[in-house]
User: Which sequence fits this backbone?
């Protein structure tokens, strides 16, 4: 686990040289085909040399969710473990890690302003009338909720208005967390300035490798736009805006680097909630200490394996 540009891929490959692992990508961008340079996707020979999963599994026009990740990653962990190998999850999409470990509840939090409005509407229509309104957008929930159950009717309508999806559908998308042992290795950032330099250098390298041409090819397809999750990925949005003429070349570089730094800041904030003994300085760590932790964790998990 680690923020962007902390060296997660390199460390995962180092681990693969010492342990019998299969790597599961924890990255919401690497799932997409044709998005290689801007996602820092491992080269084809690397992907062939070490078994990788959840990379190049979707076209950029297709959506991918944390729920999809949980379902697929938990299945892969079971399959890899059954083969007697270690499942190694590596990437920087923190929501996916959280969903894998704790499970996923997609229900939005309560919105007091919206609830007051629904209460005012109920004073005019009555809760049976609100129940009819619910039946029009979420018939499955309405069938389970009595027309007089104000609290549940209000919550179901609230969820629909916030998320745009029926409560019954979101309940189906809940998942349980992984029940087995997990050993976390966190590449921490103790020198923010050094990470910022890495981020800038990596983005400039991406440009040299043909990142603009990659986005241009995606843009020319005609079926992608900036509202899609794939094209909202850091870097892709800014290059697309440059190709549209909305940003100059230098503005594109500045905004892409700034957006990547903001992403790293959010990742670092989330990782600070993890136990500190699981962290290693991304710029100064001993590989043998990390390998020792893996060996110890693997031994403890026998015969269940990872």
Assistant:
């Amino acid at each position: 686990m680690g923020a962007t540009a902390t060296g997660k891929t390199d460390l995962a490959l180092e681990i693969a040289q010492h342990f019998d692992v299969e790597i599961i990508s924890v990255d919401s961008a690497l799932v997409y085909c044709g998005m290689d340079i801007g996602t820092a996707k491992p080269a084809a020979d690397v992907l062939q040399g070490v078994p990788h999963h959840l990379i190049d599994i979707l076209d950029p026009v297709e959506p991918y969710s944390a729920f999809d990740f949980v379902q697929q990653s938990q299945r892969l962990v079971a399959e890899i473990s059954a083969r007697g190998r270690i499942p190694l999850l590596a990437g920087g999409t923190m929501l996916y890690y959280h969903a894998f470990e704790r499970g996923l509840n997609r229900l939005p939090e309560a919105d007091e302003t919206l609830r007051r409005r629904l209460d005012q509407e109920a004073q005019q229509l009555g809760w049976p009338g609100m129940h009819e309104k619910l039946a029009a957008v979420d018939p499955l929930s309405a069938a389970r909720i009595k027309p007089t159950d104000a609290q549940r009717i209000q919550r179901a309508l609230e969820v629909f208005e916030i998320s745009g999806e029926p409560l019954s559908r979101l309940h189906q998308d809940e998942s349980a967390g992984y029940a087995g042992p997990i050993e976390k290795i966190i590449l921490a950032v103790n020198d923010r300035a050094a990470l910022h330099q890495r981020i800038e250098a990596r983005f400039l390298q991406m440009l040299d490798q043909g990142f603009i041409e990659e986005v241009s090819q995606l843009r020319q397809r005609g079926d992608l736009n900036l509202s899609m999750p794939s094209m909202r990925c850091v870097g892709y949005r800014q290059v697309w805006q440059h190709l549209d003429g909305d940003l100059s070349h230098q503005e594109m570089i500045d905004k892409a680097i700034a957006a990547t730094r903001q992403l790293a800041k959010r990742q670092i904030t989330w990782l600070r909630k993890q136990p500190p003994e699981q962290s290693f300085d991304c710029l100064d760590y001993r590989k043998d200490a990390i390998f020792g932790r893996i060996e110890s964790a693997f031994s403890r998990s026998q015969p269940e394996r990872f």
